[in-house]
Design a protein that fits this description.
IGPS catalyzes the conversion of PRFAR and glutamine to IGP, AICAR and glutamate. The HisF subunit catalyzes the cyclization activity that produces IGP and AICAR from PRFAR using the ammonia provided by the HisH subunit. The chain is globular. The protein starts with a strand and ends in a 6-residue tail after the last helix. The chain is built from 10 helices and 12 strands. By secondary structure, it is of the alpha/beta class. It has an 8-stranded parallel barrel, surrounded by 7 helices. It has one domain: Aldolase class I (TIM Barrel, Alpha-Beta Barrel), CATH 3.20.20.
Length: about 250
């Protein structure tokens, strides 16, 4: 059985790690290089690094910071934010990333998924999906530009198309749960798991140990991503892994 992954996320703006609630009201957390090194010591399986202001500021992800982080940590790094071309992907991979995450650019130009997968392999292409429940349509709607722009896309349908185009993994964030510590949106990940056959990373809502247990026992996700509970020392990676092992969930 493939081990489930516990993945801290560093949302970065202006060279600092930030954390908010529902994608707004950002609070400064600290230096990304130091925080990344601390998570490696805790036993994190991977690290997701998102330059959350890059797309809205119409600039590229900061490769220099990626180089600094990759020099300090030796776990897989997924880097996203402001990546809008195959050249951007190549630059980030050369800087030390193992995978590139694309969101707004993939929605704007779905062919970018295929182009990246053909050049670097599906395993390097993560399609990030930010989504929120839409009561009017009774479905999950896709958002871009750091959650600021709604699209007409249904999240499950978009996930299926992204995989068909070459995405090797999906990083799916529930905007409704982001930063709330109310638990992962298990209904969302159940629907996605039934629709696609690539690894899915659940993001948004982790608040207590039971939330990690629930998302792995109730849905087919391959990894659980969290920020606030790890950044502010409410939980450690070790806490989560010990609890999961006690429940029979396979972890590294």
């Amino acid at each position: 059985m493939i081990a489930k992954r516990i993945i801290p996320c560093l949302d970065v703006a202006a060279g600092r790690v930030k954390k908010g609630v529902n994608f707004v009201n950002l609070t400064d957390v600290g230096d990304p290089v130091a925080i990344a090194a601390a998570y490696q010591q805790q036993g994190a399986d991977e690290l997701v690094f998102l330059d959350i202001a890059a797309t809205n500021e119409h600039r590229q992800t900061m490769a220099a910071m990626v180089e600094k982080v990759s020099a300090q940590v030796f776990m897989p790094l997924t880097i996203g934010g402001g990546i809008s071309s195959v050249a951007d992907m190549q630059r980030i991979l050369r800087a030390g990333a193992d995978k590139t995450a694309i969101n707004s650019a993939a929605v704007a130009d779905p062919a970018l998924i295929t182009a990246g997968a053909e050049k670097f392999g599906n395993q390097c292409i993560v399609v990030a999906i930010d989504t929120a429940w839409d009561p009017a349509s009774q479905s999950y709607r896709v958002y871009t530009h750091g959650g600021q722009q709604a699209t007409p896309l249904d999240a499950v349908a978009w996930a299926k198309r992204a995989v068909q185009l070459g995405a090797g993994e999906l990083l799916v964030t529930s905007m409704d749960r982001d930063g709330t510590k109310a638990g992962f949106d298990d209904r969302l990940y159940q629907a996605l798991g039934a629709a696609v056959n690539v690894p899915i990373i659940a993001s948004g809502g982790a608040g207590k140990l039971a939330d990690f247990v629930d998302v792995f026992e109730q849905t087919p996700v391959d990894g659980a991503l969290a920020a606030s509970v790890f950044h502010f020392g409410e939980l450690t990676i070790g806490d989560v892994k010990r609890t999961l092992k006690e429940r029979g969930v396979v972890v590294r």
